[in-house]
């Protein structure tokens, strides 16, 4: 079997006005959809970032992979490295997650194609992708409710307001939680923080604790609190948290925070590769790593990370950013194979509009907080809807956003807004 055709299609889909440590989401999120067709007629699917620097690598990879055996993942990695090396060096910009940083170009490009190659392999063999990862240790994967402070609509009103409405007060955040839990059955709750005053965000967690006393709670300020603020907020959060996610920047800051509070700290920001993992273990900086296959180097490298976490007594779960169903199923298949997955995974998926999915059948169901693998279907178990893909690609062509910049968007609301971390 050989790779015969590769299609990389940039898309844009509506994104709600969600507040975060870097500003506010722009009206559209960017993604890339990858289709790899073999000479046997099988097609493997992948999904990745759609920002210009990432897209340039993915598109440059297309010709280099023609003729490669889809089982040759070492060959894939070598060609990704060679392609990145010959392209102009990406410039650091308004990175909002480690996956969009120039240092992650090889890892996220390899991951994008590795998922598609594994999907293609599994379709060729007639088995679910998780079987290539050693088999499923769970039939379904738990995910967490992902709560976000938000405005009712975007300032420039490019389309009608979303169905979620404003969420700034504690009462509105509790209402948001009730709705997202009623619709998806989530058993645990995460609050994206670092956007408003820390005391207010802590008050929202305490309101959630009162409203949902049995739900494990997490708060994620995205490194936007100083060490002293994070220590002070830890005291106010006493007895509320399952874990404390990225409250303060850096391995040193997180290590000192853990030493002073004893709280379990989780991260998707300070441990983003294997070298950072090594340094974190030496310092006891974090107790839970939130993997993301998009920038950790794919599904197999996620499994390698899980084994290291098991060896060193570190917990593991998964991080999420704005994504569609192909990424959700890739997360689900690898999470189903990880024996030591100890926490419900993050997902932004409920925030995506129902009519803006690219897979046949529309949005995937989340039932009782879980995503289930259909073991009767090969590969990831999803197919591209050509009409939907064309619609979202046309939407990409119609807008001027080419790299996500939440600070730029925030300046439409606050002209003097500047990125500053930690802000509080």
UniProtKB/TrEMBL annotation:
<feature type="active site" description="Proton acceptor">
    <location>
        <position position="319"/>
    </location>
</feature>
<keyword id="KW-0460">Magnesium</keyword>
<comment type="pathway">
    <text>Carbohydrate acid metabolism; D-glucarate degradation; 2,5-dioxopentanoate from D-glucarate: step 1/2.</text>
</comment>
<dbReference type="InterPro" id="IPR034593">
    <property type="entry name" value="DgoD-like"/>
</dbReference>
<dbReference type="InterPro" id="IPR013342">
    <property type="entry name" value="Mandelate_racemase_C"/>
</dbReference>
<dbReference type="InterPro" id="IPR013341">
    <property type="entry name" value="Mandelate_racemase_N_dom"/>
</dbReference>
<dbReference type="InterPro" id="IPR034598">
    <property type="entry name" value="GlucD-like"/>
</dbReference>
<dbReference type="InterPro" id="IPR029017">
    <property type="entry name" value="Enolase-like_N"/>
</dbReference>
<protein>
    <recommendedName>
        <fullName>glucarate dehydratase</fullName>
        <ecNumber>4.2.1.40</ecNumber>
    </recommendedName>
</protein>
<keyword id="KW-0456">Lyase</keyword>
<dbReference type="GO" id="GO:0008872">
    <property type="term" value="F:glucarate dehydratase activity"/>
</dbReference>
<dbReference type="InterPro" id="IPR036849">
    <property type="entry name" value="Enolase-like_C_sf"/>
</dbReference>
<dbReference type="InterPro" id="IPR029065">
    <property type="entry name" value="Enolase_C-like"/>
</dbReference>
<dbReference type="Pfam" id="PF13378">
    <property type="entry name" value="MR_MLE_C"/>
</dbReference>
<feature type="domain" description="Mandelate racemase/muconate lactonizing enzyme C-terminal">
    <location>
        <begin position="170"/>
        <end position="264"/>
    </location>
</feature>
<keyword id="KW-0479">Metal-binding</keyword>
<dbReference type="GO" id="GO:0046872">
    <property type="term" value="F:metal ion binding"/>
</dbReference>
<feature type="active site" description="Proton acceptor">
    <location>
        <position position="192"/>
    </location>
</feature>
<dbReference type="Pfam" id="PF02746">
    <property type="entry name" value="MR_MLE_N"/>
</dbReference>
<comment type="similarity">
    <text>Belongs to the mandelate racemase/muconate lactonizing enzyme family. GlucD subfamily.</text>
</comment>
